[in-house]
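Need the bound structure for pyridoxal-5'-phosphate, inputs here:
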Amino acid sequence: MHPIDRNRAVQRFEAVSRLALGHYPTPLEKMPRLRNALGGGPKLFIKRDDYTGAGFGGNKVRKLEYVLAAAQADGVDSVITCGGERSNHCRVTAMLAARLGLECTLVLNAPGREDVPKPASLAIEEVVGARIVRVASREERTPAMEQAAEELRGRGMRPVVIPVGASTPLGALGYVSAASELAEQLAARELRFDAIFFSSSSGGTHSGLAAGKELFLHPNTRLIGISPDDSSGSIQSTVSGILEGMSGKLGVELDCEITVVDEYVGEGYGVESSAGREALELAARMEGFLLDPVYTAKAMAGMIDWIRRGRLPSSGNVLFWHTGGQMALFHT
Ligand SMILES: Cc1ncc(COP(=O)(O)O)c(C=O)c1O
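Answer from helper R.:
Posting the output first, comments after.
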């Protein structure tokens, strides 16, 4: 990118309003024991976005800081969003809405069974007083959110509908700012990464990091998104759609390479894979941190597999970006 375009994009990015709701910078730590357990290879690092704070942290906090800032500026008094019963996005949205004094409605595509343990995220949403609306399928979520918005408007309220994962061009700015935060940490340590691995699903994290790399990170750093659910083609097209919207916001053409790997999904979304289980146990036993079975364990399984297969420069530095989600380990 030409330096003049880059400076203009950075200025536009910095002018966007953001609420201070998380704890930053999140730690950047080494993983020497995991590296040894893998028999050497690139030096391994982790960025702890499971420590962003609100609602047990994770990547949603960064995105919602932008989305909720715009909502507040619009005089919104209630938020509506959607996800599954274990959705990290729904839990964090409910917690942040409470903190900002906003009503919260969550449209969950789950039947609400009494005969199975209640997911921890749902239990937390009940504690925080979110209104739960249940639908039978993912397809019914958007119409149900529109209907909830209509009802609230009928009561004289001013709701905002936040799309799944807050993965809009605005929400994705959260990961542009995360890339800028990482760049500062790297400059202080005179370090650069050859590759960054992370879980990529609704595309906000990925598009934010891709745009953020253009503005703040080394051009040779490869971004490798690992899918927990959809095909690589479908996530790639979501990411490029969000990047298109971000190009407009930042006034610069964001023509980024988008790599999504869908080889580590296993039996499907939310189903623990054996490679994911191995990654979860290795991370816990070698480095003393927890991954989650739905997103981050599969992303870590991907990184481990690439290292074992010698697909990364053995003298290089590789980052695993932890995006949170550990509540999925717990039920009430
Ligand atoms: C813990 C966790 N990691 C990663 C992701 C994927 O991030 P994104 O939806 O921005 O692609 C999610 C999203 O649902 C998540 O909850």
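Comments: The chain has two domains: 3-57+168-329, 67-166. The two ends are 50 Å apart (CA to CA).
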